[in-house]
Amino acid sequence: MRAQFVLQEIWIGLRRNLTMTVSLVITVAIAMALLGTGLLVKLQVDSSKSYWHDRIEVSVFLCNKTSTNPSCNKTDATDQQKAEIKRDLEGSPVVAQVTYESKEQAFERFKETFSSNPGLLQGTKVGDIPDSFRVRLSDPERVDEITKLLANRAGVDQVVNEKEILDRFFKILNGLQWAAIMIAAIQVIAAVLLVANTVRLSAFNRRRETGIMRLVGASNLYIQLPFILEGAIAGLIGGLFAAILLVGSKIVLIDQLQESLEFTSRLSWTSVTGVIVFSICVGVLLCAVASFLSLRRYLRI
Fold it and tell me: Do 293 and 274 share a structural domain?
C-alpha cells in the first residue's frame, strides 16, 4: 500500500509540473552529454598518448640537391656521412632502433599516405623527399639528446621530432575536453536550480496532502520520498537521452577524428559504455540530492 501511494504521488507530481519536468530532462541530458563527451575526449587523448609513447620516432632527413639548409650546399649526403650518422645513432643509449629509408621508399610511403589527394601526388616525384633515418627512442622524453648529437652534423638537413607535433595536437584535444567539461558544469548548475524550483513547486501544490500526512504521524523521509524520486526519475530520463547523444558523439566526433587523423588509436565501445553508465548515475544522483537539499533548505518538511 505504501509503495502504491509513493508511486501515485510521483505520477501526480510529474504530471502537474510537466513543463518544468521536460525542461529538467532536457537540461540534464545536455549537461550529462557534454560531461560524457569531455570524458570521451580525455579517454581518447590518454589512449593515443599511451599508444604513441613507445612509437614516437625522430626523422633525420639527409642532405640532397633540393635542401634549403645552407650547410648542405645543394649536394647529397655521401655514403661516408651516412655511415657515420648511423654509427653514432646506434651507439646512443637513448636509441632503440635505427632504420634507413631511401628516397624511393620515402616516395612510396608518401603515395600511400596521400593516396586520396591526387593533386598533391602529381606535383611530387622521386627525389623531392630526401632519404632519412627513422630513429625509434628507448625513452621519448630524451629526444633532445638526439638533437644535440646531430647538431651541425655534415650530411644532415634537418631533424624532425614527432613528439613536438603530437604534443601540439594533444594540446588542442585537451582544450576541447576542458571546454566541454566547463560547459557541462554550467549546465549542471542550471539543472540543480531547475530541480530546486520543480521540487518547491510540486511541494507547494501538494502542501495540503503533506500537511495531513504529518498530522497522522508520517515520517519526514516518507513525506520527502516522492519528491526525491521525482527528481531521480527526471535525472534518469535525462541520462538515457544523454546516452543516445554520447553514442552519437562516439560515431560522429571520436570515430571521425580517428579516421581523419590516422595516428590516433580507436576508442573502444567498452570505454564508451563505462562513460554512459557514469553519466546516467551522475544525472540520477544529482537530481535526487538536489531534491533532498531543496526540501530541507526551503520547505523544512
Answer: yes
Shared domain for 91 and 48, answered yes or no, is: no
Cβ pair 191, 28 in contact under 8 A: yes
Tell me the per-residue pLDDT of 171-205, one tens digit each, with 9 for 90 and over: 877 787 788 788 888 878 887 887 777 777 766 76
Structural domain of 73: 55-162
Report pTM. 0.67
> For residue 276, what are the CA distances in angstroms to 239, 264, 272, 288?
8, 22, 6, 18
Q: Are 98 and 149 in contact (CB under 8 A)?
A: no
Q: How far is CA 82 from CA 79, 127, 169, in A?
A: 5, 17, 32
Of the residues 103, 128, 162, the one at which a domain ends:
162
Q: Beginning with the edge strand found earlier in the chain, give each strand of the sheet holding 132-137 in spatial order.
A: 95-101, 132-137, 57-62, 156-161
